[in-house]
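Design review, sub-item: ligand-bound model
Attendees: FS, YL, KQ
YL presented the inputs for the NAP complex:
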Amino acid sequence: MAEIIDGKAVAQDIRDGLGNAVKELEEEGITPCLATVLMSDDPAAEKYVSMKQSDCEEVGIATRDPEITAEDSAEDLYNLIEELNNDPEVHGILVQLPLPDHVEEQPVIDQISPQKDVDGFHPENVGKLVIGNPRFKPCTPHGVQMLLDAYDIETEGKDAVVVGRSNIVGKPMANIFIQKADGGNATTTVCHSRTQDLESKVKQADILVAAAGVAEFIDGSMISEDTIVIDVGTNSVERDGERTLVGDVEFESAEQKASAITPVPGGVGPMTRAMLLYNTVKAAALQNDVDVSLPKQ
Ligand SMILES: NC(=O)c1ccc[n+]([C@@H]2O[C@H](COP(=O)([O-])OP(=O)(O)OC[C@H]3O[C@@H](n4cnc5c(N)ncnc54)[C@H](OP(=O)(O)O)[C@@H]3O)[C@@H](O)[C@H]2O)c1
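KQ shared the predicted structure:
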């Protein structure tokens, strides 16, 4: 039976550590501040942003909630980002995705100052991660790395298999695993929708990261004994007439086979949220040239 990897508990430890780092910054007269830009009427996006704001509040990070609506133009959004880029009291800028159809995503990401890009999506930060000199690692894969570290799960020399190749999860996860650094040095396979014989790739994994967004499509029969299963997938499905969240991995059968597994919810999700706070505190420290003690990695 697999050990359950408790993302909630690890995320709480990280938030506690960040609370101390925020106090160190306060002693230097700096209050870290995250601007959350919401250009959507979608209730789910509104909920994500309000959760991120209350996470900030909990550790002492200030927030800005600038005015922009789903009907505004791309130009309005660029102008707002420029204002935030130039505001010395704002250290991190988060643009909640997805954007409305009339606003293209990549030019917006490109517009955010790389020093304030706490999602780690700007090409400069992507490049820095790839060459092994990361400034901000994207929150979800960074959270996975922290989770493995918290459970003393060695990545060096292991076969890591990442299912999914998105810019926000799969690709940066693979880039973290292949780095010649602590928490890396894994032999890494990346699978996607065109992968032939996914099952044989998944079976070879010492560490499996499932990030395809397909409800429960990997089950216990597809994984080997002793695999560490990290389930990033967050899929809303109907069960017994009610909506519920499930991962990309079928938990009950995988739990019988794996040596450790993250639940959904309560695994990777809380870590993603904690790593946004981490990047915001780091951004404030870097912009002010102050050393603070951040949780490891
Ligand atoms: N827990 C968290 O904090 C968190 C954070 C972010 C995302 N998520 C969840 O993680 C999942 C992935 O998110 P994302 O943004 O990376 O999704 P995405 O942009 O839709 O990317 C999905 C990736 O999975 C691949 N894929 C889809 N179906 C597949 C299949 N049957 N076999 C193999 N590969 C397949 C796709 O391949 P192609 O490239 O060939 O299309 C694509 O690379 C979603 O459920 C999302 O909600 C959770």
